[in-house]
Amino acid sequence: MHQYLFYIGGFPIRSYGLVLSLSIILAVGVGYFLAKQDGRWHGYIVDMGIYCGMAGIVGARLWDVFFFDWDYYGNHITEIFNVWQGGMAIQGGVFLGTIVGIIYARKHNIDVLAMADILAPAIILGQAIGRCANLLNGDAFGTPTGTGYGIVYPVTTLAHHVYGNQPLWPAEIWEGQLDIVIFALLLIFRSFKHGRGQAFTLYVMLYSVVRFFLEFLRGDYSELVFGLCTSAQMTSGIAFILALAGFIYCGWRDRDKKNIVEPVKLKKASRKKGK
């Protein structure tokens, strides 16, 4: 686990920033592949990825600052943009990234729900790789296991500052692994008939469930909202309910005109049309 990979002069190259950038690049690349396989809009993916990626970083940071750590940052305003300290809430990143994606899609007359379905697997893959950045940086850590099992973080990390040499639950590792499972499930789901928008709402539901239960093991913040649950659990619960309603509605709306992803046939058809 190395927070600093090397230095260029006196400037540190941090593993957190490098892996986070890699997660965005690979997510965009997978999104391009899926869109080209689908036969629609792949020419827009790189530009959309740049805008949504930048919005995702801003949204993730501000979500963490205002929803999770305002007690600290309210007294340390100048540190709000010190993202290398840790503190990037993926829920805020997905939220603002999605908003920017919708704006971009509407501006270019792209079917928002169809594009969201195409990109859902790419988004969760980016999240999975992003959790590797959290591990290398020593943030998004778990609570003490109370046994000899767990991760002991280096002294330079926030996790060590909070819990010292106590072994902690590998919450960020498990979340990254479960994100890969969601990635596979979304690819499988998209190979069957489904209503427009159902793949994206399924992604939101699955991730919300994973995040809700893993929050019981998180140790980087523990303040409860209304004494009931953490902020992330509350937003996960709300997101799950809204996504479930959307999933049901999308299936009902398209019950007589189901969509199906057939990559090979669509690719051949696109060549005939000269796309």
Your description of this structure?
The chain has 275 residues and is mainly alpha-helical. The protein has a domain at 4-191. The chain contains ten helices and two strands; from the N terminus they run E-E-H-H-H-H-H-H-H-H-H-H. A two-stranded antiparallel ribbon has the order 1-2. Helix 1 (15-38) runs antiparallel to helix 5 (112-137) and helix 5 (112-137) packs antiparallel against helix 7 (171-190). The chain is globular and about 60 Å long. Mean pLDDT is 85; it is low at 260-275. Its EC number is 2.5.1.145. Pathway: Protein modification; lipoprotein biosynthesis (diacylglyceryl transfer). GO terms for molecular function: phosphatidylglycerol-prolipoprotein diacylglyceryl transferase activity. Keywords: Cell membrane, Lipoprotein, Membrane, Transferase, Transmembrane, Transmembrane helix. Catalyzes the transfer of the diacylglyceryl group from phosphatidylglycerol to the sulfhydryl group of the N-terminal cysteine of a prolipoprotein, the first step in the formation of mature lipoproteins.
The general outline is globular
Q: In what order do the strands lie side by side in the largest sheet? A: 1-2
Which oligomeric form is depicted? single chain
- Percent helix, as a range, is 55-70%
DSSP strand content: under 5%
Counting DSSP E segments of at least 2 residues, the number of strands comes to 2
Individual helix count: 10
The radius of gyration is 20 Å
Q: Please provide the ordered H/E string of secondary-structure elements.
A: EEHHHHHHHHHH
Structural class comes to mainly alpha
Mean pLDDT: 85
> Main beta sheet, described?
2 strands, antiparallel
**Distance separating the two termini:** 46 Å
Uncertain stretches: 260-275
Pathway: Protein modification; lipoprotein biosynthesis (diacylglyceryl transfer)
Organism: Pectinatus cerevisiiphilus
Function: Catalyzes the transfer of the diacylglyceryl group from phosphatidylglycerol to the sulfhydryl group of the N-terminal cysteine of a prolipoprotein, the first step in the formation of mature lipoproteins.
GO biological process, one term: lipoprotein biosynthetic process
